[in-house]
Amino acid sequence: MFSGLPNYCYLLLLLCLTTVCLGEDPYIYYDWTVSYIAASPLGVKQKVIGINSQFPGPILNVTTNWNVVVNVKNDLDEPMLLTWNGIQQRKDSWQDGVSGTNCPIPVGWNWTYEFQVKDQIGSFFYFPSLHFQRAAGGYGGITINNRNVIPLPFATPDGDITLFISDWFIKSHKELRQDIENGVGLGAPDGILFNGLGPYRYDNALVSGGVSYLTVNVEPGKTYRLRVHNVGVSTSLNFRIQNHNLLLVETEGSYTVQQNYTSLDIHVGQSYSFLVTMDQTASSDYYIVASPRFVNSSDLSKSVGVAVLHYSNSQGPASGPLPDPPNESDTYFSMSQARSVRWNVSAGAARPNPQGSFKYGEITVTDVFVLHNRPAELIEGKWRTTLSGISYLAPSTPLNLAQQFNIPGVFKLDFPNKMMNRPAKVDTSVINGTYKAFVEIIFQNNDTTVQNYHLDGHAFFVVGMDYGQWTENSRSTYNKWDGVARCTTQVFPGAWTAILVFLDNAGIWNLRAQNLDSWYLGQETYVNVVNPETPELPVPANTIYCGALSPLQKEQARRVNFSRAPSLTKTIKLIFIGFVVSLLGSFMR
After folding, report:
1. Is the peptide bond before 56 cis (omega within 30 degrees of 0)?
2. Mean pLDDT of each 10-residue bin along the chain, 589 residues long
3. Smallest Cα–Cα separation from 347: which of 160, 150, 117?
4. Residue 563, SS3 per DSSP
5. Cα(456)–Cα(99) distance, rounded to whole angstroms?
6. CA-closest candidate to residue 450, choices 408, 491, 422, 391
7. Cα 203 vs. chain centroid, distance in angstroms?
8. Would you say 101 and 399 are in contact if contact means Cβ atoms under 8 Å apart?
9. Residues 341, 356 contacting (CB under 8 angstroms)
10. In which order are the strands placed within the sheet that holds 60-63?
11. Plastocyanin-like domain: which residues (predicted)?
């Protein structure tokens, strides 16, 4: 059918065919071993969880739509999973790494996650999701860069710096979880860490000597993007840099309206990006500070994290008092800040069209859930936390597998829309989500501390928050234009927060408290979203089976070092390229 065409036409045709067949998004491979390592963040030797002997772990640095393959070997003394906080795992909750989606990776075993960062940009992090392990570390950053075809809504920074801020306890994660099982609260943290390191000795009376601290090296006149993640256990932290403004530009995958802050409260599980310009005289180094907020303690001066910002031309060490924190008695300061974080509706992000082209405020709400929490209480003789009077009980068979294999009795699709007039109970109750429903969720915090909530698989719009009890009249205060889209929101004590979410991602998705003590005692549920036309991706070939499906599991062979072997996809590509080259040779004779 192509006879008579000149040779260059054949060449063009084959090149086009090659481009179409090989035109997939790039893959990036990681090989990680999760194990205990020795560290002394606060000057006391402890076992922390490291990845490839690093604490914090490596940063996943990828670009929109890349495919990520992470082989995880569990060298801890208990089962574990990693979850990817904020990565939406489009139609693939099998990669989510929480108890409802995956069987734990047994001790000595490995499991390979494979997922695509589809249509996402921004700053996120990963962490171990089981057994209170995040309190021992195991976390690291996820940076998703814009594709080159979509410009940043700000000038390209001169550098990119990731900061992990977290409360820290000298007790092990096993001791901490035993405490909360026995009704003993966590109390104030022993310290605040920057990137796994203790405080700079800004005050000899408050900070002991011999503690390693973080130094951030910068060049004068340059502008850096700081990605700041609160990866802690339960403490909200106020972040600030002495004599420097923080220009907020992004949070959890959404570009924000750009505005300056002298400090910002960052709550557990939240991530923010700031542009910071090194515009000071460098007469000395400068303090970088993270201090606790909303903590009931008579002496928080010992629980302040301090790192050092060091200009290359600095004339001396940082000294003098720390920059002032917000007034703790001003209960509206933090809420006003939170309300001021707004969506940049004119900026493109993962796609060229502006973020604001999704006009969420014009969509009709189809379902409403009002979720009430309470402080920990005794239920059936054990300390538990609840959402709407239900404390989630994780079954031995993950929800995803139970649904896939039609195993009855594992969970119920009966989570209530509102608080029921009945005693609190322990149950595996799941929200029955409708595919492409537009859902309003109100979190009512009846606890005495800030609680933070996260939804896997989606970004939601934070449209309102206030003190007191939410009522239907509260909707008149909603922001229906530029409420920021994110995956973790704070709910202040005695207050409510309202979100709107479009359930367009098939799968079973974890809705949880980010505060580890609340989450560990049962303050979570799942949202089951079934697309009747295009179901979720099938069960991965390397799935680990447990619970009722344990008989399907075979003994795992020794760990495969995939990083030294070409993938099947790569092999097919090489065969195809060889085929094309041979065709070209025959046509050009």
Report:
1. yes
2. 44 39 81 98 97 98 98 98 97 97 97 97 98 98 96 97 98 98 95 97 89 97 98 97 98 98 98 98 96 78 90 95 91 95 95 93 97 97 98 98 97 96 96 97 96 98 98 98 98 98 97 98 98 90 96 71 39 42 46
3. 150
4. helix
5. 13
6. 491
7. 34
8. yes
9. no
10. 60-63, 140-145, 122-128, 82-85
11. 34-148, 160-314, 397-532
List, in sequence order, every residue forming a beta bridge with 374; answer none if it has no partner.
386
C-alpha distances out from residue 398 to 393, 394, 401, 450, 546, Å: 11, 8, 5, 29, 8
Strand partners, 259: 248
pTM of the model: 0.91
- How far is 56 from 197, CA to CA, in rounded Å? 10
- CA 437 to CA 455: how far, in whole Å? 15
Nearest alpha-carbon partner for 275 in 317, 247, 244: 247
Q: What does the alpha-carbon distance between residue 486 and residue 123 come to, in Å, rounded to a whole number?
A: 11
d(CA 252, CA 120): 10
Q: Which secondary structure element, helix H or strand E, spans residue 34, and what is its range?
A: strand 27-39
- Please choose, from the candidates 434, 443, 442, 440, the residue with its C-alpha nearest in 3D space to the C-alpha of residue 413: 434
